[in-house]
TerB family tellurite resistance protein
Amino acid sequence: MMFKSLLSRLSDPAPAPLSAEEAELAIAVLLVRLARADDSYEASEKERIDRVLAARGNLGPWEAAQLRRQAEAIEREAPDTVRFTRTIKDRIPHDDRIGVIEALWDVALVDDARSAEEDALIRLAANLLGINDRESALARQRVEARRS
């Protein structure tokens, strides 16, 4: 039910606000879209998405994996990234949006390689979320520091 609700809200030119659960699902879809951006969606990226979702939503491993699987199904049929990020921007405060950018960097850097496609998607998402280049760079640095 949440699947159809989220898709219909994202397809609506003036979507109603999302519930907290729908907002987390939209973020999960954005993470999946990023992981698939370089045409290589690996197990390490899925595991990282699960960890990010678990930490964001205080979920157990099974619930996080289930949320990721829902996001994978939605991502295949979802509208463009612009609508996703607008929906997220309208639903969550600025500081939490910086957390979304950190989550995107966390997934992008899991394979220790930055692709042009992933960088472009993060730049687009940051811009649409109202996160400036400096804030995005600092988010990336925080993720890199945690990984080292």
User: Anything to note?
Assistant: The mean pLDDT is 86. Residues 20-36 form the longest helix (17 residues). Residues 19-147 form a domain with the TerB-like fold (CATH 1.10.3680.10). The two ends are 40 Å apart (CA to CA).
